[in-house]
Amino acid sequence: MAAIEANISMSVDGYVTGPDLDTHPGLGAGGEALHTWVWTEDGRRLLADTFGASGAVVTSRRVYDATDGWAVEDGFFGMPVFVVTHRPHEPVTRGGTTFTFVTGGVEATARAAAAVAGERRVHIMGGASIIQQALRAGLVDRLSLHVAPLLLGAGTPLFAHLGGPVTLTPLEPHHTADATHLTYLVG
Questions:
Q1: What is the pTM of this model?
Q2: Is the pLDDT of residue 37 over 80?
Q3: Residue 79 DSSP SS3
Q4: What is the SS3 assignment for 111?
C-alpha cells in the first residue's frame, strides 16, 4: 500500500489557521502568513518534490469549498484528489485533476487514494480535522510540518483531539527564509 504523508503549514504555537474564522474565512486573521513559504523559490521546489512523490491527494470538503476546488483550468494537482465529505457529490474534473468525493470517512478516503496512488505517496493536506482523524486511525506514515516563524495565539490547533500520544521519529529538518520544514516518521 502507498505510504501516507500528512502535510500542513502551522505556526510555532501549533495553529493551522489564525483566529476569527467567522470574520476572516479560510485562514483566519493573520493565517495567510502560514503559507508565505509557498511563494518562494525554495518553497516551490519543496512543493514540486512533495507532489512529485505523490500519486493522490486527500483533503477535506471544507478545504475544497474554501478554495473553490482549486478552480484553475489546468487542474492544480495533476493527480486524483479525494475529498472527505458527508455530502455526496459527483466527481469534478479540472484539467488533469479529478476530485472524487468520498462519504465513508477518512479511512475509506485514504484507502481509495492509496488504491490509485500505487507505489507513490498519498498526500493528506488537511485541514486539521482530517489530519487528526488520520493520526488517530493510525493511517499516517509521515508527518510533514511547515512551521512559520509566527505566534498566532489562537486559531485552529493541529494537535487537538488526538486521543493519546503519537510517537514521532524526526528526519533531517530543512530551513527556508519563511519556515522550518520538519518531517517525522510516525509510529
A1: 0.92
A2: yes
A3: coil
A4: helix
